[in-house]
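User: Can you predict the 3D structure for this chain?
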Amino acid sequence: MLVYVVCCLLIRVKYIEHELAKKRGRNVDAADQVENELKRAEDELYKIPEHLKVRDSSLFFALLYSL
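Assistant: Here is the predicted structure, written as structure tokens:
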């Protein structure tokens, strides 16, 4: 829960910084492009490989309750 709150605050801070930069006339497109590329690379780290995904949830729950 705390991680979620911190992430929300960081997103708000980045949004405010972005809007202030636009208001001051700075070029934010180049910085955003680099940041988006880094974010996409980071998102790849959190993807679950296909062979580790649960295919059938009923099988998962049957195994869970049989323990």
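The CA atoms of residues 36 and 42 lie 10 Å apart. The chain has a mean pLDDT of 77.
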